[in-house]
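Homework-ish question, so no full write-ups if that breaks the rules, but can someone show me the predicted structure for this set?
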Amino acid sequence: MILSPAERSYLYDSLSVQPPVRPDARSAHQFRPIEASCSFLPNSNGSSRVRLSDGGEAIVSVKTQVVLTKNESSLISIDVDINKERDDSNFIKNLISSLESILLKKFPIEKLKLTERYSFKVYIDCFILSHNSYPLGLLSLCIYLALKSTRLPLLTSTVNDREIEEQPTFNDDWEASKKLFEPSEHQDDPPLLFVVGIIGNNVFIDPSNEEEEVSENGLIVGFANGEIVPPVQSTNLSNRDSKGISPKHILKAYSMVRNCGKEVVKALNTVVSSDDDVFTSIY
Amino acid sequence: MEVYSPEGLRADGRRWNEVRNFKCHINTHQNSSDGSSYVEMGNTKVVCLVSGPMESPSSGRKPNSSSNLTVSISMPSFVSNSRKKFKKNDKRIQELCIFLVKTFEQIVIMKNYPRTIISISIVVLSQDGGLLPSCVNAITLALIDAGISMYDYVSSINVGLYDTTPLLDLNHLEENDLSFLTLGVVGKSEKISLLLLEDKLSLDNLEKLLAIGIVGCHRIRDIMDQEIRRHGNLRLSKITNK
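A: Not a homework solution, just the prediction itself:
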């Protein structure tokens, strides 16, 4: 998006006053409205779709496969695909590395363990239909929903195959399948990433396209189980030259993410619990 | 697996002349495209986004040399049962795009859109047979939503042959086992605008398949027409209530 010098200066000034005035009248800790649904792909273990009010939309599918644990370097594989964009672009590579950096560290791997020898391998495939602002926050919400809606078949064979070699067998009945993340146990939720924009002394969550254009810097903050978790990365949201971040900004961003994170998780969990039928249409 | 039982039932419980559950919606992505639609044929789910008519980026250089209508199909790696990465220039996908362009160049009133581009982008969410038919149906709906002038609807379906029995609207398993043809029909007429037959089929069975296919296409057209009218009425009521 190209802003004229006048627009740029107006946006910059209104976002740097105390409290910031955002172009869509949100408060600094408020998200844009999202539309979300999950469990609609019949071929996947879990799936979700999230759409922002600016038209940005992502679809995530979670598929699993039984693998020999010792043959796999990682039990989680993430792939991002953007409509009409090259697979090997730097933009996509950066998104994947940001997502990997949190998911590989904060994913409760022991949930994937089947027996002594075998595990589930989780393939997270993200597809971005369209995006206007930096899509990392959107993807993270979508991945959270997809993982929360993931169902795995129930293991019927023995868990201990240390002595006797045995292939794991599963219950055919999909009704008996178990959720990867049970709704009752909240201590092991999948991690989330939040994008925070910085202008002047202000920080604001979920920046829109115009806000990204004038922002001086951006932060990516990880959040899991009610706490801030590493990685915390700085990122350039606009192509203009950026300014440095002071520790004050980071502390502000931390407290903001800690407060909104809980609300976001609560909202997403309601989506998961209300949407649990593969035969519903997604639109 | 038994494709067609002696009692006249297929593996998924349908009779020979029954189509799968067909669902469609238009105007699903009003903020990110000029026209959009979502089509579900059984477990095949397709989203179509149309942008245009818009100025072509290279209109100065080559006004009429290439087509003004472009189609691109994206297949994310999760579409089929087993995970498979599709390349952007996959030959099969390129071929499908060409069929779709050829079909819709004849249906869209192209003389109304000189020196402009209509770009159609299809995203397949889930693949269970009948990919080309669902793309055709989704494009028809999305073009209507974009307000692009067309002569009529094109509706499409595939028909397979089991021994001497024609089977309507095949799913993925049936497509693998039977020889089948895909046809697209213009509106309520018997004009065939798209016909694709990639397997061997005896000539005396062809007429039978075409006959049931045309009936199937008309049925699909009716469902699509219903959805368009439902959406039109919804918009009208929004305007009149203001």
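Now go work out the reasoning yourself. Hint: Chain B has a mean pLDDT of 91.
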